[in-house]
Design brief:
Elements (H helix, E strand, L loop, with lengths): L5 H9 L6 H19 L2 H4 L7 E4 L6 H12 L3 E5 L15 H21 L1 H16 L15 H23 L7 E9 L13 H14 L2 E9 H15 L3 H15 L1 E5 L12 H18 L2 E4 L2 E4 L4 E6 L11 H5 L3 E4 L5 H9 L5 H10 L4 E4 L1 H17 L6 H10 L1 H6 L7 E4 L1 H13 L1 H7 L1
Parallel strand pairs: 1-8, 1-9, 2-5, 5-8, 10-11
Antiparallel strand pairs: 3-4, 6-7
């Protein structure tokens, strides 16, 4: 586990998320506590449980982004789920245990990718040898020869071939064989059957049946005639896959899920509500009761083995416009001891979001249009105007937070994006006049703005 201090974690989150200092502080402490737990003596380590977090705030203020960036920073398996997608056992819908199964699948994929990177050098060496074998097959004595082979002749041929092989290797590495075509054998899944269940909640059975069919129909080789660079990449990928030790990957993935997994449960407010006897309300409370064992610590069966959830960090979030955190059942509330409130975004926040983060929207559009040879320049008053319009539309309609900037920006750049390939003038200045000319007509028509913005 990476050893980041809480200040370093907050500093990294500040690169991508504006404001919300309290939420950043809470997740930074939670992540640091995971590292601290690993340093505690073993007999006490298992007794220390993670301090799960509830984030309360409107949509589009950074709840999901904080959790996603945190997981990326920690290189931890991360999954985001919507609480409203799950139903109580006995109802049609997704089973809450599928959260942990999906998280384990993600950890397996992460482990495989890391193994491929780790084995890349060895895979490249093996792929190069296989490719050279295709370009220059090795000299062998035929077993059907009736007379003893001429050892000197064969030895001479091998020396000549070794010399030729080294020349071919040099030409290949210099890219002088890129136009040649070779025939390579690559593995393929024969008779692969795609099984789909329409009924919700059947995803795990679907996965198991696919695995069963993949075992019935073993992998077979197929010959393909391709250019040398493509052949090399195919062989590298195949060799990297062959070098993966699945036992090590599975063991590492399960440990990674158990010790550093992060589950983000969105829309938690949608399953909060007092029981009133109606089936929908019962199902809501039932989802909380089904989630409870996973959050407090239980063992879930996956196709890779048993996974304990005792030390997985759960971050729940919700707008809580109608329901309140106190409407959750007491046992569920008790499993989320840390509560942080995220504030709504104002015009000043939008200006900062447009300009400051490393992935700021203005930078994204500038880079996208540079691919067409268009140079985009922004004036300060244009940024202010975009932020003002986004704030105004959020006030007049649904407040969707920073996501409103995407709709406004897309409208501003709509014409330029369409005409970019054919545009003669390769310099574009986005100022206040241009922004208002693109958006005024929509803003004046209230009904139109509801559809477009």
């Amino acid at each position: 586990m990476k050893n980041f201090t809480p200040r370093e974690i907050v500093s990294e989150l500040d690169k991508y998320i504006i404001g919300q200092a309290e939420a950043k502080r809470a997740v930074a402490i939670a992540l640091r506590n995971r590292w601290r737990r690993q340093q505690v003596r073993e007999e006490l380590r298992d007794e220390i449980s993670p301090k799960n977090i509830i984030m309360i705030g409107p949509t589009g203020v950074g709840k999901t982004e904080i959790s996603r960036r945190l997981a990326k920073l920690a290189e931890a398996p991360f999954i985001k789920v919507e609480a409203s997608k799950f139903t109580e056992v006995g109802y049609v819908g997704r089973d809450v245990e599928s959260i942990i199964r999906d998280l384990t699948e993600l950890a397996i994929k992460m482990g495989k990718d890391e193994e491929r990177v780790r084995n890349r050098v060895k895979a490249r060496e093996s792929a190069e040898e296989r490719l050279l074998d295709q370009l220059l097959p090795p000299v062998t004595s035929s077993p059907l020869q009736s007379t003893p082979p001429d050892e000197k002749r064969i030895e001479g041929e091998r020396d000549l071939q070794s010399s030729t092989r080294q020349k071919l290797r040099k030409l290949f590495r210099e890219g002088k064989l890129d136009d040649r075509s070779v025939e390579v054998e690559v593995s393929e899944q024969k008779g692969s059957v795609d099984v789909m269940f329409a009924a919700p909640g059947m995803e795990d059975m679907d996965s198991n049946i696919k695995d069963m069919f993949s075992n019935i129909f073993p992998k077979k080789s197929k010959k393909r005639s391709v250019k040398v660079p493509e052949a090399y990449e195919l062989l590298v990928n195949e060799e990297a896959q062959r070098l993966i030790d699945m036992d090590t990957v599975v063991k590492s993935a399960i440990e990674r899920v158990e010790q550093s997994g992060i589950v983000f449960i969105d829309e938690i407010d949608k399953i909060a509500g007092k029981q009133s006897g109606q089936s929908a309300e019962v199902s809501r409370e039932g989802v909380q009761r089904d989630l409870l064992p996973i959050v407090e610590g239980s063992t879930i069966k996956t196709k890779y083995g048993m996974v304990k959830t005792d030390h997985i960090l759960f971050i729940a979030s919700g707008a809580f416009h109608v329901a309140k955190p106190s409407d959750l059942i007491p046992e569920f509330q008790g499993r989320f001891p840390i509560r942080v409130e995220l504030s709504s975004l104002c015009k000043e926040d939008f200006v900062r979001i447009l300009t400051e983060p490393e992935n700021a929207l203005l930078k994204q559009y500038k880079e996208l249009l540079e691919t067409e040879g268009i140079e985009v320049k922004y004036s300060d008053d244009a940024v202010e105007e975009i932020a003002s319009i986004a704030t105004m539309v959020n006030d007049r309609m649904e407040n969707i937070g920073a996501r409103r900037l995407h709709t406004v920006m897309e409208r501003v750049f709509d014409e330029i994006s369409f005409e970019a390939p054919d545009r003669a003038d390769k310099e574009v200045v986005i100022d206040r006049e241009y922004v208002t000319s693109r958006l005024n007509e929509i803003l004046e028509d209230e009904d139109l703005s509801r559809y477009i913005l």
